[in-house]
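**User:** Here is a favour to ask of a fellow structure person. Please take any protein you like and set down a full record of it. No explanation is needed for now; the record alone will do.

**Assistant:**
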Amino acid sequence: MTVTEPAPVVWLRQQDYDKLREEYEYLSDVRMAELAKKIGLARDEGDLSENAGYHAAREEQAQVAARIRELKVTLDTAQIGEPDASAGVSPGMTVTVAFFGDLDDTDTFLLGSREMLALDKSLDLPVYSPQSPLGAAILGLSAGDVTSYEAPNGKTIEVTVVRFEPYSA
């Protein structure tokens, strides 16, 4: 038996949640029915081994099914509103960190889901996952807290949380 980790919480504004719900419903109800019909028509043409339309439709159906699963997980784990800043750094926040205590070397990013990039086309911040080495290291910290994490290249990087606040578009 395989143990799976729970999906991370994604903070979404109500309008973003509604957009994802609309996409989920469209793909589940309309697009999958269209693709099933397209596959059926292509199947009726005969020899499937050389039927490019059939294979293209099946591939698209698989991609749409994967997106539906992804949306379902996001919608099921989404928290609507804003994260509680009094609890420290958490997903859904804009965070500024300083590297190695140098307040001139800072990075500001959104701690959250890449889904937020798709929802907010005006977002000009990088998005770091809470499961990334940096994201995991700063979860729950407050401004002024210092921590370190191991970068993918094996180096230990020290960061100071400079500030954080709930993301707002």
Notes: The mean pLDDT is 85. The chain has four helices and seven strands.
